[in-house]
Design brief:
The complex is a heterodimer.
Chain A (H helix, E strand, L loop, with lengths): L8 H4 L10 H17 L8 E5 L2 H17 L1
Chain B lengths: L2 H13 L4 E4 H7 L9 E5 L3 H14 L11 H5 L4 E5 L6 E5 L13 E6 L2 E6 L1 H9 L4 H14 L4
Parallel strand pairs in B: 2-4
Antiparallel strand pairs in B: 1-2, 3-4, 5-6
The chains are: A mainly alpha, B alpha+beta.
Chain lengths: 72, 156
């Protein structure tokens, strides 16, 4: 990716959009997920099927799993 | 989560004719807004044969995992509209949703086919993702909504 220059921090923080049909997109996508994997171990989530009565309940369980991983 | 496994999973959903719509953070990436996430969120039409096709996709990747049989259309259409599948090897985490909240059901989701890293996926439109993210209380969802609004020029 070429060097990008910004005049302010706020300008640098603005979201950017890549064209999903370009090679650059695929490269950035893989780089971001590889980096994320370094910080989020695969064993964060116990294997299996888990059923929830709402999306909020599902998100609360996910947060609990992440918290438990961080404590260990 | 392994992004290559995610791409293969999405390709297999198409191959097996599963009626689904990709939403969530992976849905954002399809529209060019890349951020990391730990799971794939999909809306699934909670009909018996469609759920069976979805289970076949999971079994395609994890044939030894008996837990996949615990996914039932009757649950998704009834008491459990959100089912999460965590694969045994940690490569894939999927939130299978049928009606998160009272606001949306499968038939309400505006979606489109989009090219995505060499495959074609069915994804919620930016406007639809914005409406869903905007309604959430999570800070990350609010930030996603703001990014969608800015990059796609969406109105309130």
């Amino acid at each position: 990716m070429p060097i990008r220059k910004f005049r302010t921090l706020a300008e640098a923080s603005r979201p950017i959009r890549l064209d999903p049909e370009t090679e650059d997109f695929s490269r950035v996508l893989h780089s971001v997920f590889r980096l994320a994997a370094l910080f989020a171990p695969a064993q964060t989530f116990p294997p299996g099927v888990f059923k929830f009565r709402s999306l909020e309940e599902s998100q609360a369980q996910k947060t609990a799993w992440i918290r438990k991983t961080l404590q260990n | 989560m392994d992004i290559d496994k995610v791409l293969l999973f999405l390709q297999e959903l198409k191959n097996q004719g599963v009626h689904y719509v990709l939403v969530g953070a992976v849905g954002l990436t399809v529209h060019g807004i890349i951020r990391a996430t730990q799971d794939v969120d999909i809306f699934l039409k909670p009909e018996e044969d469609n759920v069976a096709r979805m289970k076949n996709v999971l079994k395609h990747f994890f044939p030894e995992d008996a837990s996949i049989d615990e996914i039932h259309a009757s649950d998704l259409a009834g008491e459990y509209p959100a089912i999460r599948y965590n694969s045994p090897d940690g490569s894939l985490q999927i939130d299978i949703l049928t009606r998160p909240g009272e606001a949306f059901s499968f038939d309400d989701i505006q979606s489109e086919d989009k090219p995505y890293a060499g495959i074609t996926v069915r994804v919620a439109t930016p406007e639809m993702l914005y409406r869903m993210k905007r309604a959430s209380v999570r800070l990350q969802d609010r930030a996603d909504a703001e990014a969608l609004k800015e990059l796609f020029g969406l109105k309130e």
